[in-house]
Design goal:
By secondary structure, the protein is an alpha/beta fold. It is built from 13 helices and 8 strands. The chain has helices spanning 9-14, 16-28, 44-48, 56-66, 77-86, 93-100, 106-113, 133-138, 154-159, 183-186, 188-204, 215-227, 237-241, and strands at 2-5, 32-34, 71-74, 103-105, 126-129, 166-167, 209-212, 233-236.
Length: 245
């Protein structure tokens, strides 16, 4: 298969180690992956602010960069969900529709497309898993706790394959961290309180690391941890799945 690696702009700027880990992990899985160098922002910040019509150039640039690939994979649940739901084009709508059907977040690509059953990875630490709202309720990476339905978690399924890793149980396993993109700016106090609650849950249960499929949530939590001078660290799930002793 021919896979295009989509790295969201904030990942490129602030967490390049997660981008590298995603690339290396896919190559370990035998995937032919390429990174289009002219890719830019997916347009989610404009859309979330109520200005989706201003993201058309972002949409067209994404189409130009990724139309030729069999799959598009990225390490950010929120950006991937945005593309799945909102990638449109005023001149190439048929192509945009096709692309929306082949865009995958890294975890769902590994579990749903590659269907991997084992990993050559080791991460001997206690890890708390944060289910982002976009990943949970948008991409359905795990079952929502408010539903009376069979439980599942694709990230937990992958983390269970990592040698030495101990997944710590949380009191509220799928509560929002409060980031919410522009929400953390427009409702700063509420956002910070929600983030502090999530950090406290992980810390109380002994997590050394907090991981997620969404680096935007991890960035929010990392800021709170830093201000608390906490020893707990954040790490994207790609870095754990790609880790070796």
């Amino acid at each position: 298969m021919n896979v295009g690696l989509f790295i969201p702009c904030y990942v490129n700027q602030f967490y390049p180690q997660a981008a590298r880990a995603t690339l290396e992990l896919l190559r370990k899985m035998g995937v032919n992956v390429r990174y289009p160098t002219k890719q830019i922002c997916c347009g989610q910040p404009m859309a979330n602010s109520g200005f989706e019509h201003l993201a058309q150039d972002c949409n067209n640039t994404f189409i130009e960069n990724f139309a030729a690939f069999d799959y598009i994979v990225g390490p950010s649940a929120s950006c991937i969900l945005h593309l799945k739901d909102h990638l449109h084009s005023d001149t190439q709508e048929a192509i945009a529709t096709e692309i929306r059907g082949k865009v995958y977040e890294l975890v769902e690509f590994l579990t749903d497309v590659l269907k991997i059953e084992s990993l050559d990875a080791a991460f001997p630490h206690k890890v708390g898993l944060h289910h982002s709202c976009h990943g949970l309720r948008g991409l359905r990476l795990a079952q929502m706790s408010e539903l009376n339905a069979p439980d599942f978690s694709k990230p937990q399924q992958l983390l269970a394959m990592v040698k030495g890793l101990e997944q710590v149980p949380l009191d509220r396993c799928d509560e929002c961290c409060g980031f919410g993109g522009v929400f953390c700016v427009s409702e700063e106090a509420v956002s910070v309180k929600m983030g502090k609650d999530r950090v406290a849950d992980h810390t109380r249960n002994g997590a050394e690391y907090i991981t997620s499929s969404d680096l935007s949530c991890l960035m929010h939590l990392e800021g709170i941890l830093h201000r608390k001078n906490s020893a707990v660290k954040v790490i994207h799930i790609s870095e754990i799945l790609n880790a070796t002793l």
